[in-house]
Amino acid sequence: MAYITINKENYFYNLNECLKHINNNIDNFVLILKDNAYGHGLLQISNLALEFGINFIALKNQNEAEKVKNKFKNILLLSQLAQDYESNENYILGINSLDYFNYTKKNDKIMLKLNTGMNRNGLQINELKQAIKIIKEQKLRFLGAYTHFSSPNNIDKQKKLYKEYCTYLQDNYDEKLFFHSSNSSAVFLNKNDDLAARCGLAQFGFCDVEANLKPVMSLYAQKLSSRTIQKDEIIGYDERFKATKSMLVSTYDLGYADGLIYKENIKIKNNIKILGKISMDSFVCESNQNELCIFDNAYEFAKEFNTTVYEIFVRLNQNIKKIII
Question: Which of 119, 129, 154, 276 has the CB geometry, 3.0–4.6 Å to 241, for a possible disulfide?
Fold first, then answer.
């Protein structure tokens, strides 16, 4: 059976590298575990995060949060639809627009998403006065606010507006607010002006800027069968591979249903070439090994597809077995 290994030592190493950039204050460390912890396994990674001492995470929505709702004191829901939200003492609803306040209820815990130039979600600066008014009228538990940078190149431009937002909010609200803007890139560029930071991809060993990190995931496939094919025989759908010699080939138990990108003639770890088209549940290589490592560095594998490690990770089927090593 195909499986994923999660290197605990490397994972903890990466978390410590992130913490160095926020004065080692773990209470100000928001760990992003959305989309099945970037494909690494929400249940497995959340257990490691708890062991490390993390108490504040961010997830996509309440469906994800239900799986770990009793583990963490603070769970920020980044993309939850407000009309479907059911409050929980550990949940914090991310407010992506003023419309969300049509569905919030007294005592709901909230954080405002601030649009500082990425133009994906969030409130504009001219909407903050109305937001504060509604928060007070509805007696919501307003904990803070956050923004997201579009790229490392745009951080300084967005930060200027972000600081205006934060100053306005704090000046117009009596209780101390918790602000966080820095993603992994901003953290490792040392452009974190907040007391807090959010780290997503960096925890798994990758960053869009230079950072001293270690890959956490390795992906393996196991052999289903072997056979010898002769010159001019084909492999797979649409006869996309024809042998130029006699070859010993094997079929392995990973395919595009498991998250491999559907492409021909790609190479996996150790420069082994997949022959012909990837099938839904398998691929074929010139090999007789009982198992093959697909990748132990997702960045190198991603280059085969001209894509990012994000896509490589989140495509992986959640049912692939995960082993902590």
Answer: 276
